[in-house]
């Protein structure tokens, strides 16, 4: 296997590399989806795979998401490890039935006889000026579905590590790729790829003592920026990157909030019924007596994703995060 | 840039992309359902095969009756009977080799049983002690599928995977007339044809989707006519003629095995009983129609052929019936035992390893069960 | 219109009556779905409608849920008010794309020019011994989708009132019918049907001072039973029936919790990513300084719905609710 | 109960449910795409219609060029061009009466414009200031539909509703070759046929779904062959021959209007430009193929016919070009103005009345905007 110098690399390149390494290591890994072969995907995340591994290993399918995921189920039944690309978040919905009733449940239905090691890659979220149906944050749907793992990277290294772990997992993984981080760069060295940690561990991206920002995926860089800006206001914010929504790393999150006594959950997904409610509720259950203020949430509005020219008003930004931090009842302190 | 610069050249040919592709003619079904029994074709049929089919039909009928009886005794939560459709169920099972795969719908426990599955395991779902009651790999029978038509893409994917691995495996998937209306039917057939996957799709057109008759389900000349739209052969067969269904399915399986790709087979049959024991069929159809179909009974058709041609005698018929009764008695007895259940199984197979969250819940239930036990 | 004596009536009968009255009052109301016509639905909820109003008003469709909801969208575009029946919860999933990308969004996409007054009736939840895929609690998916109203009745009178309100609404409503309450009876008088309140009001089903049980749909009777049992333990529980998950009645819920200082959210849906997280989080945001204990949740386990013989271990019952009430840190009190 | 008691009677007839239903023959498409231009059929065509089509084609080509130019100037977020497919776009619009409805896919802004929609409104989605940029009721153009094939059931439902109300309305829905693989395509066609809804489905087979060629999309003899599987006529037409597309669509619309039910029309055409301005078509196809198709250009085909037969002169051609330039200049000018946006619109149309939750969020954004304004 030739080594490509990818230093610094984009998140998209790290994802490509993860699939490439997985395919090289394990002939049962198959990539499939719309335009993933010859074109290399509309985001070029599968670039070069068909060329390197042939069209049987990286396959342009007919245009039908339920068919793509449904045939992937059959392939997994026969021992393959399909890595399915859904072209955009909202275009995964036609495959919802297959995902919920089969992918998530097959292991359980068959008492473990038929696990489905399928990775469903879903580019998600906004911030790239996409027209309607191209910017949904659909993680709440997947989180509410037992049987699925749900992960999402925020860094180039995690993109590689988490995707390798997802493909290696014997359980189905919904792998949410933050579209607006595809071109984010990092000096990640592909020749020493991060050790592949098991799925399910959050990480503290920035230590702080005043309050914890709990976040994931596209909102991680925003929270880090907010934490920098918060220093001016005298707040030293901790930022926890969940990385995995299912399983959820209660230990890391609760430890942080117990330390800081205050927390804000930040995500782009709509607030109502979104991941933040679950996160805030579980943190509160675990840290009630350490909390100086209710866990607050900064989220997208409860509206259909806006048109490109208005999306900046929808997306949780630094100011909105700082506003929420400001509402964490600091008076009580003094 | 002006319009004229943008304009292409004139050439009065047909559109260049268009070429006469697959010839549609051989893909179209015959005008009448193919029949063997009671026709000249019957003379060609292998007597041994006919006797095997007969024994299985008799067994299948008895199985259906027994399962329905078990619902009345509260031993099955629900049973969707395939009485009257045994020819399809049995022929589907017998058309396959051991290494092949069967993808049944929720009504097709009989096909699974005819393929060798233990009836008790086949009925687990309907008894309610677990979902899939068997290891699908053991007899290469996919889980009974309740969401209609959703197992069809699975069959395509499995057959495709087997072919990629170089294995000689054909998948046969069963779906109802109602199920053909689902998007998954369409997507599965299209993928199968594009990939030339070794799959056979058997549509059991039994006239109804619960209460909805075929005329409200489709306006097509026949369901088999859908095949040409995917570029695969469509075949129409008398679904109550076990010899005919077996012949057509066997040919389709062979075609698939030889690399010819998928086939769609429509078997015209009838659901003689209600949708399930919980259904009241008198609400949507008359007795006359049912009676007409009882006159086209799959067992009677085959028995007549066998008897007429001296291929079976009273003893042979009795042997088939006795074997069926033995199966039924055994099934009845075993189904009358309460299954042993462990509530902790609820957490055992959600993931390879329970998540920390599930472990907490597991502990909770364990504690509850312990407390319950102590109370008793 | 003839008057049928329905006293006492089942919830199923009240639902039928609501559709019948709506169809009689407004010729644009059309009922459609699998087996809703001649058969009157597998739960007989549409019994008699095809006979009374003809098959064009109560239509047996082909067997295809996306097609049913998708054609209903077109009918609504032309001014009709379709009432769609999904035969079971899990069989609504094939229609997910139509629901999320069209039904929920059409008004917004068209700046209000094309509202879709569609009611999607979904029999949901377990407790009736259904085999797999027949007992899902799918409300979390719908709650997380802006543009949908989500309501669910717990009483015979509300079944009538809420369904009339849903059909009358100019917005799409996902109307969740608790299957196991279909045959619950009440001395509801169909000739004086409850005044049709607008969607969005919770109701206190039982007043109490010790703690609030926040619940809805199939869990309401269970909570009322638990409240009775709790008296023996010295707890006087208040029970709030949400009735509407979207919009959410923050005022009623928060007022109750401020009074009692303690709350448990009870539902059958899985806990993780389920409605309870949202509810607990919003209650905490609003009532933090009134809370003696974290808002707890009693929910179904985070597992695929169990087979019939095991479902009783999954469903939140009286004991599990009382256990949670017991964990509301009563020591602090004394 | 013994097996024999359960057994039905013998009757060696075909299965009773089966009757020869619709005759499939008239539903099948011809072996070659129907053409008018450059054939004898052209003599029958109405010269006035041909001139109208020509003017619209020229205008359409200019519209496509202008919209693509606007992407380069950052005035459109993205544009999926229908260059080379103008004959389909224009004929679809012209085949309909005012009271009929058009259901375009995301590529069909031109069809909407040819139907009378203001190009600026048609391009709103792609400029990004809102989603649907027009009131669908005004010109009876459904919202441009991005999720492929999902608007097809809407067209069926609308046409069905109109028929139930006794209104004379036909719906014409456009979908791509790729879109035919989606389950919604299947379900829509089936509902349409069962309900005999007045709908025309126009498949623009332009050879590609982004990078995926037709051969990876289907194995069918033609996409029009799918029709017979639903029991509706399938028609194959040269999609670059505006006269032919118009004739076939007009006939299908008339058929629907007269109660004959739906038709599936496959127009064989080609996407001459990249999928959108953001796409790089050289990754998946060669220049030679594109050049071949430029030799079958819809404008050139029609212009040749008109010129040869003396139905248009230089002045007529110039007039068409001038009108197109005027439209383009106006479009350019208006698109160069920044749209006036109100962020509070985000909350205005989620529900008829904002929920209490949305009202809180509305207040929050209002306060933020105010603070922002004060800072400036
Ligand atoms: C996706 C889906 N929708 C609805 C149902 C409910 N349902 C169960 S059986 C049935 C009718 C099936 O008819 P058909 O496909 O003809 O099979 P048959 O029952 O006649 O064997 C329906 C609507 C289901 N199981 N799955
Ligand atoms: C349901 C869905 N899946 C995927 C996409 C992404 N996508 C946009 S256009 C396109 C190709 C469409 O091909 P075709 O239907 O032939 O139309 P054409 O672009 O050729 O006009 C794809 C895959 C989508 N818009 N909707
Ligand atoms: Mg049937
Ligand atoms: Mg195309």
Task: Provide the fold topology.
The complex is a heterotetramer, with 2 copies of chain A (334 residues) and 2 copies of chain B (376 residues).
Chain A: E1 9-10, H1 11-25, E2 29-33, H2 49-53, E3 58-60, H3 65-77, E4 81-85, H4 96-103, H5 106-109, E5 119-124, H6 139-143, E6 149-151, H7 156-168, E7 173-178, E8 185-186, E9 203-206, E10 211-215, H8 219-232, E11 237-241, E12 244-246, H9 250-260, E13 263-270, H10 275-287, E14 296-300, H11 311-314, H12 318-326
Parallel strand pairs in A: 2-3, 2-4, 4-5, 5-7, 6-7, 10-11, 10-13, 13-14
Antiparallel strand pairs in A: 1-8, 6-12, 9-11
Helix pairs in contact in A: 1-7, 3-4, 8-12, 9-10
Chain B: H1 3-6, H2 47-72, H3 86-94, E1 101-103, H4 109-114, H5 119-122, H6 124-127, H7 136-139, H8 152-164, E2 171-176, H9 183-195, E3 199-205, E4 208-209, E5 212-213, H10 214-217, E6 234-238, H11 242-257, E7 263-268, H12 287-294, H13 298-308, H14 314-335, H15 356-375
Parallel strand pairs in B: 1-2, 2-3, 3-7, 6-7
Antiparallel strand pairs in B: 4-5
One magnesium ion binds next to strand 4 of chain B.
Structural account:
The complex is a heterotetramer, with 2 copies of chain A (334 residues) and 2 copies of chain B (376 residues). Chain A has 334 residues and is of the alpha/beta class. Chain A is 34% helix and 19% strand. A 7-stranded mixed β-sheet of chain A has the order 3-2-4-5-7-6-12, with helices on both faces. In chain A, strands 9-11-10-13-14 form a 5-stranded mixed β-sheet, sandwiched between helices. Chain A has a two-stranded antiparallel ribbon with strand order 1-8. Chain A is globular, with a radius of gyration of 20 Å. Helix content of chain B is 44%, strand content 8%. Chain B has 15 helices and 7 strands. Chain B has a 5-stranded parallel β-sheet, sandwiched between helices. In chain B, helix 2 runs antiparallel to helix 13, helix 2 packs parallel to helix 14 and helix 3 packs parallel to helix 11. Chain B is globular and about 90 Å long. The relative contact order of chain B is 0.15. The complex binds thiamine diphosphate (2 copies) and magnesium ion (2 copies).
């Amino acid at each position: 296997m030739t080594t490509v110098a990818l230093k610094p690399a984009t998140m998209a390149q790290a994802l490509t590399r993860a699939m490439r390494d997985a395919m090289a290591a394990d002939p049962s890994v198959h990539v499939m989806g719309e335009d993933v072969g010859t074109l290399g995907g509309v985001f070029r995340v599968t670039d070069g795979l068909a060329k390197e591994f042939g069209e049987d290993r990286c396959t342009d399918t007919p245009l039908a998401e339920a068919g793509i995921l449904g045939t992937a189920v059959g392939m997994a039944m026969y021992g393959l490890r399909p890595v399915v690309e859904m072209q955009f978040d909202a275009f995964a919905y036609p495959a919802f039935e297959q995902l919920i009733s089969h992918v998530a449940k097959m292991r359980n239905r068959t008492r473990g006889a038929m696990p489905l090691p399928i990775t469903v890659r879903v580019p998600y979220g906004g911030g790239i000026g996409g027209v309607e149906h191209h910017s949904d944050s659909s993680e709440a749907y997947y989180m509410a579905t037992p049987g699925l793992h749900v992960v999402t990277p925020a860094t180039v290294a995690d993109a590689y590590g988490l995707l390798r772990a997802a493909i290696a997992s014997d359980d189905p993984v919904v792998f949410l790729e933050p579209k607006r981080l595809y071109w984010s760069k990092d000096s990640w060295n592909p020749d020493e790829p991060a050790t592949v940690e098991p799925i399910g561990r959050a990480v503290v991206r920035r230590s702080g003592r005043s309050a914890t920002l709990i976040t994931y995926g596209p909102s991680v860089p925003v929270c880090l920026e907010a934490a920098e800006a918060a220093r001016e206001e005298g707040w030293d914010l901790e930022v926890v990157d969940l990385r995995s929504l299912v399983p959820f790393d209660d230990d890391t999150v609760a430890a942080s909030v117990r330390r800081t006594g205050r927390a804000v959950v930040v995500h782009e997904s709509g607030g109502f019924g979104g991941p933040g409610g679950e996160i805030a509720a579980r943190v509160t259950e675990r840290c009630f007596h350490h909390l100086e203020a209710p866990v607050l949430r900064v989220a997208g509005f409860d509206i259909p994703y806006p048109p490109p020219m208005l999306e900046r008003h929808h997306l949780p930004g630094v100011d909105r995060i700082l506003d929420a931090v400001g509402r964490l009842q600091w008076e009580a302190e003094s | 840039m002006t319009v004229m610069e943008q304009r292409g050249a004139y050439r009065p040919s047909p559109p260049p992309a268009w070429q006469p592709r697959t010839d549609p003619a051989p893909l179209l079904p015959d005008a009448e359902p193919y029949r063997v029994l009671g026709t000249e074709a019957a003379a060609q049929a292998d007597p041994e095969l006919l006797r095997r089919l007969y024994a299985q039909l008799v067994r299948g009928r008895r199985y259906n009756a027994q399962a329905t009886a078990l619902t009345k005794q509260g031993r099955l939560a629900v049973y969707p009977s395939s009485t009257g459709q045994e020819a399809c169920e049995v022929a589907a099972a017998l058309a396959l080799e051991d290494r092949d795969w069967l993808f049944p719908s929720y009504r097709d426990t009989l096909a699974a049983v005819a393929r060798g599955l233990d009836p008790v395991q086949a009925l687990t779902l309907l008894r309610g002690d677990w979902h899939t009651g068997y290891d699908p790999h053991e007899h290469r029978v996919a889980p009974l599928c309740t969401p209609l038509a959703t197992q069809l893409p699975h069959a395509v994917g499995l057959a495709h995977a087997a072919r990629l691995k170089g294995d000689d495996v054909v998948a046969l998937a069963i779906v109802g007339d109602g199920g053909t209306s689902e998007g998954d039917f369409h997507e599965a057939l299209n993928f199968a044809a594009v990939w030339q996957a070794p799959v056979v799709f058997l549509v059991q057109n039994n006239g109804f989707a619960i209460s909805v008759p075929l005329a409200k389900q489709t306006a097509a000349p026949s369901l088999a006519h859908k095949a040409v739209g995917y570029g695969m052969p469509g075949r129409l067969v008398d679904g109550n003629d076990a010899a005919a269904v077996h012949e057509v399915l066997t040919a389709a399986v062979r075609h698939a095995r030889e690399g010819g790709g998928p086939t769609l087979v429509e078997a015209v049959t009838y659901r003689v009983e209600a949708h399930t024991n919980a259904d009241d069929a008198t609400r949507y159809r008359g007795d006359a129609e049912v009676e007409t179909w009882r006159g086209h009974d799959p067992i009677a058709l085959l028995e007549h052929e066998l008897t007429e041609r001296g291929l079976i005698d009273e003893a042979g018929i009795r042997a088939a019936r006795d074997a069926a009764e033995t199966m039924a008695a055994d099934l009845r007895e075993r189904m009358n035992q309460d299954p042993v259940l462990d509530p902790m199984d609820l957490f055992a197979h959600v993931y390879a390893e329970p998540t920390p969250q599930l472990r907490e819940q597991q502990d909770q239930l364990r504690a509850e069960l312990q407390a319950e036990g102590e109370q008793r």
